[in-house]
Amino acid sequence: MPGVSKVSDGSGISGVEDLVRSDAALLEDDLAAFLASLTTPPARQRERQGQEQRQGQGSSATESLYDAVLGRSLYAPVADAVGSKVGQEALAPAAGAPAGRAPLRPSMVFWAYRNYRGFPGEAGEEDSGADLDAVRRAAVAVRVLLKAAVALDDIQDGSGIRYGEPALHVTHGIPLALNTGSLLITAALEHAAEPAVVRSLLESVRRGLTGQAVDVSTRTVLTRAELVAAPLGERIAFWESMAALKTGTLFWMPLDAAVAALGVVEDERRVLDEAMRDLGLASQLFNDLTDFVPGYGGRQTHEDFGQLSNRVFLELLDSAPAGPRASGELVGARLKEFVLGHPDLRETLLRLAAEAVELKRSAMEAVRGVCRSERSARYFDVTIERKGHLIDRLHATLLKGEDA
Prior knowledge:
Layout: H1 12-38, H2 43-54, H3 60-83, H4 108-117, H5 129-157, E1 161-162, E2 165-166, H6 168-172, H7 174-192, H8 195-217, H9 221-229, H10 232-246, H11 248-262, H12 266-289, H13 311-316, H14 322-327, H15 333-340, H16 345-368, H17 374-399
Antiparallel strand pairs: 1-2
Helix pairs in contact: 1-3, 1-5, 1-17, 3-7, 4-5, 4-11, 4-17, 5-7, 5-8, 5-11, 8-10, 8-11, 10-12, 11-12, 12-16, 12-17, 16-17
């Protein structure tokens, strides 16, 4: 089966972009329905309460109080966690396009469906209503699991701002944010329904939590001392293993869930697995580098010095002062002074930015190799480049000297 190495410019491109928007709008509708199912009292409870009121049992005031507390403690944080969109990269509104007045977030789950089951009106398009239902459920489950990860990660990382607005635990408190994140994980897995998809999503949850555990451990004195003492090659291998799990899973999860639903052959799944790993590494490099580039890191610029998980730090440790290296105290203000004053900082930023660009390029080329058509390749490009173009822009910014 031939792959697609290049997408030609032509009349079909706008049609593909419209389809991306239509699929993204469908996902938004499904998310709204999912959210409504989580934030509406169960019918049985409403029926029971009505029966009790008709029989003169129970107190309507007590029920009203319960409903009010449930709304504040469960429904409101769930709605905030799932519904938050401020600051997230999206397809910009476009007049005349499907759902043209709303910013939309494409899903790689739908790319997989279009690639393996065909485009509307395409010769050989399969009648796959059952597959589409499974894919729609998978897309919702993936998006909700990502929201749950955000809620939990922000607590662990001490992040007060997410997407330009207060983090969930800032608005609702840590206990309710923890409860909300946990509830969303179970609800998402239940919603996925298809056993193969649920198994895939469980593996994604396991991977993500494993990567997060390693990331958080770099705040401890023991792990910092071990990293400082390790040779450069071992530090980079440590970072890659951590990033592949922590960030690579965010790319791997939607595609693996989709191909599990669609029964994609093993050879192509391996290609997609490797491509998503590379995209994850590129994304984590971007995240690490933005801490040094005003306009990308924003208010977080020069604030990621509480742990040793940033790739830039790990690259520069060989020349760290012997005292802090031996004691594991190269953290916080000491680490900041060391890194920002390092003579090789700029060269390191440029090299890592170029590495991120190459990782993204290689990943996208690999995915194009399994695309069934030019339309499929274009669909994937639109889906990835809504954020992927920032990796290229960051590299260009560093080349101009606008850094640190």
